[in-house]
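Why do we care about 3D structure at all? Because function follows from shape, and shape follows, mostly, from sequence. That is the central idea of this module. The next example makes it concrete: a single protein chain, its amino acid sequence, and then its structure expressed as tokens.
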Amino acid sequence: MIESNVKDDISKNIRKTGFIILSFYIIAVFFMLFFDSFNLLDFSETALNNQIYAPPSISHLCGTDRLGRDVCLRTLQGSTIAFEVVFLSLFFSLLVGLPLGLISGYFGGYIDKFLSLIMDTIFSIPVILLSVVIAFILGRGVINAAFALCIVYSPQYFRLIRNQTLLIKSENYVEAANISGVSTMTVIIKYIFPNVITPLPVLLTLNAADSVLVLGSLGFLGLGVPANVPEWGSDLNLALTALPTGIWWTALYPGFAMFFLVLALSFIGEDLEESFNK
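And the structure:
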């Protein structure tokens, strides 16, 4: 009993920590979007009068980079790109994986075999390798990066929804609806869909954490968003050349920003998974 209470307390603390960290990022994103919409912050590379590679100080709390840009502002701006790409990629993944999983699991037969073969083939390719190849073919861009991640994660949603559909379509209430003459579309939307989406929040949260790392990897390799767009992975790449000379701040803050976002999403995802398994 005591051990169970301790586990529950740890779980609550982990979930609370994850939401607190995530809330800071959400607030930062809204502030950056507000400042950008009214042009209150100048991220232009042509009007920079700051000292390059200035160490952290009162005027620049996180220092400046090789172009004199404030590292704090650039890191905060990178959070908006991370959220945008992650949201779009998971949204597109759901648009692809959810309906295909429902169709495959409900109808079965050759449709199921064909879709499962395609999705299993994509799923068998390592995430980083597949995303790099797709991003290289599509080129840089927010939509392109999101589309590359969409192809990577769609098979996971397909497999989850398909397996859930296979289980639920054999339930008595679904068979009764089919016997009573209810249309196939109504059965899928009314009786199957609400029951197969229950585990989706767990997968969405864990994939969000993973996609932050994949986006950072693409940016580090120069395959993510355009070079003029603040992004943590590309900033870490640029920081590598200065790191041996003792300029640590250009790598520290983007790295920390990525680490804590992944940590928060992982905490929330793990807690949701544990709650779902109960």
